[in-house]
Each structure stands twice: as structure tokens, then as C-alpha cells.
Amino acid sequence: MRHATTALAIAALLGLGAAAAIAQPSGYTGPSTAPQTAAQGSYAGPSSVPLMTVKQLLDTGRDDQHARLQGRIVSHDGGDRYTFEDATGRIPVEIDDEDFPAGQTVSAQQRVELLGEFDKGLRKTEFDVDRVTLLP
Questions:
Q1: pLDDT at 30
Q2: Which keywords fit this entry according to its UniProt record (predicted)?
Q3: Residue 30 forms part of a structural domain
Q4: Strands 125-134, 81-86: parallel, antiparallel or unpaired by DSSP?
């Protein structure tokens, strides 16, 4: 009976080790504190996603429409909620930490381009950001 318990304990430990090995990204060689996006490249060429103003998006945008906005993130409203502004108006935006440029700080004065999807609902309208790019 004692051997069976020991065998089960060893099998459980081996199973945990295998699960951890499966969970690691391929090519991983050791510990890292770098954000996941730091190792990923990004596309920098032309895009068919339309460049729009906040006013155009609010007036004519469709739910789930992809768009690009250029302007400034003017306030952090808690969690992943921010307010974005261009020359035509303001819109609430949702930006996850990993969607900011890796290793760079974005100030309220910095011009940025947001790539994302318009979320137009009956009670809430916002722009869900997939990527923030710093503009010169």
C-alpha cells in the first residue's frame, strides 16, 4: 500500500511538471519578467483599417467596426479605462496594459494612434484598443 501511495505521489509530481512544460511558450529557456508583447514584433506597413476622427466614429460608426484614431489619451479613469481626445471630441477607451508600447511611457501630451474596435451599445459606447502606437 505504501508503494502505491508513493507511486501516485511521483506520478502527480511528474504530471505537474509536464503541465508546466506544456504551458511554457516554445523557445522559452528560463525565467522572464518581460511583458509578453515585448518579444512579439508588430506590423508597420499600410493598413486598410480606416483612420477616423472621434466625431466620425460616434456619428457613423457601426458596432464591432475596426478603426484607427489619432490624438491623445487625456486621462486614466481607473483600471483599463481611459479617455481619448482628438480635435473633434472625446471617447472612452479600454486599453489593456499589454496593448501599450513595450518599455515606453505614454503621457497626456503624447500623440498616439489607437487601433481597435468600436463598441456601440445602448448604454455604453467605447473604443476597445488592440494597439497603442506613439506618433512623432
A1: 39
A2: Signal
A3: no
A4: unpaired
List the pLDDT tens digit at each of the 136 positions of the chain.
555 544 444 444 444 444 444 343 333 333 333 444 444 556 667 778 999 999 999 999 999 999 999 999 999 999 999 999 999 999 999 999 999 999 999 999 999 999 999 999 989 999 999 999 999 9
Query: Phi and psi of 49, rounded to 5°?
Result: -75, 125
Residue in the structure block whose three cell numbers are 504551458: 23
Residue-number span of the structural domain to which 75 is assigned: 51-134
What is the total count of domains within the chain?
1
Residue 9 belongs to a domain: no
Cell triple for residue 21? 512544460
Helix, strand or coil, per DSSP, at residue 99: helix
Residue from 65, 39, 58 nearest 130 by CA: 65
The span from the CA of 80 to the CA of 73, in Å, is 12
